[in-house]
Amino acid sequence: MSMRAVWMAAGIALLSACGAVPGPASGSAVLLAAEPSLRVEGNRIFLAARVQGLATDALLDSGAEMTLVDKGFAAEAGLLAFGDDEVKGTGAGTERVQFAQGVTIAAAGKQLADQTVAILDLTDISERVVGHPLTVILGREIFDAGIYALDVDAGRFQSVAPEAVPAAEPLALSEANGIKQVAITIDGVPVLADFDLGNGNEILLSREFAERAGLLEPANILGTKLGGGIGGPVERTLVRVETLEIGGHVLRNVTAAVSPPGDGADANIGVSVLRDFTLVIDFAGNRVWLEPRA
């Protein structure tokens, strides 16, 4: 569900023309008393949230550079939309988008004030990807605002105090096109992968990387599958990955989906991989801890 730099750059340019633009960590973060629980549907994570005080269940997406709000829910929440631009997500086409500023988002025990959100029609994603109405995709703002422990299978997403992070050595996070990345190895070939909790499907690989890693040999190809997020469906080639290594831990016989040429990062790992671990995620500190589930 990642939103790529091609439209984010356009969005930032539009915002700059229309007024001051808060960055991903703009606004204040106020710690709230209650800690939420997750609702997990397949490999998609939903979290209780409020936008301008209006309650909803939001899709948690660390690969979205900003929070996305369905235009119908935005109107109900009283968001004042401005601008008109075209966005490119992980689908084959584009979508129209507007923006709203000065938005308050409450989720994961925090309240984020003075946020900028994108407003667009999420009907296609609701029907084709999620299977029910989707009002909000909660982006990386929430991850930038704190440190969190995530256990997908236990339905737990909780704040962690800086002094309470694990003593073990973390994995380093880097950043590309507004998305955090982590180093992995696929069939012995190193690659930086988007750390994308909004990806509820297979590992995603670029065609260029898949060719470099020898994954498009006939013996590795499993078939094709329609995928794609914002922008509509796109056909991807399914391939077999013998080993995926992350942080010294090896997963075997993993299925990956290869995107069309020029579409997205070299690799993208989502919930299908990360749910095998309990995680402590620190975007501000550019680090993540992974512990295999017992």
TrEMBL record:
The keyword Hydrolase applies. GO terms for biological process: proteolysis. Residues 1-19 form the signal peptide. Pfam families: Asp_protease_2. Residues 56-142 form the Peptidase A2 domain. One of its GO terms (molecular function) is aspartic-type endopeptidase activity. Keywords: Hydrolase, Lipoprotein, Signal. Gene3D superfamilies: Acid Proteases. This is Putative lipoprotein. It comes from Hyphomonas hirschiana VP5.
